[in-house]
Write a structure and sequence with these properties.
Length: 49
């Protein structure tokens, strides 16, 4: 019975870490660079790029 509890705890921790990584780390890695995008957006910081 103790082994099942350890397995469930480890699985829960892994799921929680995966959620936090996906929510906070993955979007930061997926953001494109705003330097030299060349999209013709202009010099203002309008957030259109």
């Amino acid at each position: 019975m103790e082994n099942w509890q350890h397995l469930l705890v480890y699985l829960t921790v892994a799921i929680a870490l995966g959620y936090l990584l996906r929510k906070f780390v993955w979007p930061a890695l997926a953001k494109p660079d705003r330097d030299g995008g060349g999209k013709g957006c202009g010099n203002s910081d309008c957030g259109c790029g």
